[in-house]
Amino acid sequence: MSCQEEQLVKTICDLYEKISNLESLKPSQDVNILFTQLVATCIPPNPNIDVTKMCESVQEIRQKLIKICGVAEGYLEHHFSSILTSFQDNPLNHLNIFPYYNNYLKLGKLEFDLLTQSLNGFVPKNIAFIGSGPLPLTSIVLASFHLKDTIFHNFDIDPSANSLASLLVSSDQDISQRMFFHTVDIMDVTESLKSFDVVFLAALVGMDKVEKVKVIEHLHKYMAPGAVLMLRSANGPRGFLYPIVEPCDLQGFEVLSVYHPIDDVINSVVVSKKLGNVGGISCLLKPCNCSKIHAIMNKNMMMIEEFGAMEEQFS
């Protein structure tokens, strides 16, 4: 381990100890300060640091930290969703009070752009978002600014999260007619998954590799052939905050691209389609004929990896 890696791990482990000793992970001054420090430590892009290959003791801390971050994120979203629903007018007009709203705007634009590139002009009619939570900002941003005729079905296992989320959008005449909430474990959702052109899987649905792969296998079993699966992942030190999804985890899917932001948007995005050509939208997906491309798009401030089979004439 290099000196840089040692210092990074030491800083993160010290913050983990402080965070794990907090009485509560609900929003407070102490919680906000420590998580701000944690994100600031992990966010500088450093793809040369592979957190999955660090020693067992660091891996244990990483897994615990991801779960802690998930709990804290849930509390934060619940807190702000409750505040937003207290507004007498349309709560969606006040989303900017959420401290990470601009990050969701950026992420939503990135995900819409890569969907547009992958679907070759096809506009998805029905989208599922799994793990939408009490503040379903991805669905709201996409429905409000990018996919204005698309129906969104949000799935979450927590009834209180769905109750708040439903109340949040209820005052918006347009969004409330195109957004639905389902309280269910996604592992119990089967045949209805075939009706979605695109399925989003939130970063914290499946907080470790085994759980994540189980969910992916379930989606593969029931999604329509050719449908797009979009997953949130992480790269480099950001893997201390969110689970990392590798292309090899997506058995039965063709990985179209992996986007690694290098700005303050933390999550990477993996775009894939379920293999098969039975109806659906598979024929509309943009082909990828590059073996592996690394680039930096300054406009969107993100690193890109595209995966696909190299055609013979380029071999």
Distance between the termini: 36 Å
Strand content: 15-25%
> What does the overall shape look like?
globular
Structural class: alpha/beta
- SSE order, as H and E? HHHHEHEHHEEHEEEEE
- Low-pLDDT regions: 278-315
| Number of strand elements | 9
Organism: Arabis alpina
Catalytic activity: 3 S-adenosyl-L-methionine = nicotianamine + 3 S-methyl-5'-thioadenosine + 3 H(+)
Pfam families: NAS (PF03059)
Protein name: Nicotianamine synthase
Explain what you see.
It is built from eight helices and nine strands. By secondary structure, the chain is α/β, with parallel strands linked by helices. The protein has one domain (1-315): 3-Layer(aba) Sandwich (Rossmann fold). α1 runs antiparallel to α2, α3 crosses α6 (159-169) and α4 (101-119) crosses α5. It starts with a helix and ends in an 8-residue tail after the last strand.
Descriptors for this entry?
315 residues, alpha/beta, Rossmann fold, 9-stranded mixed β-sheet, 8 helices, 9 strands, 38% helix, disordered C terminus
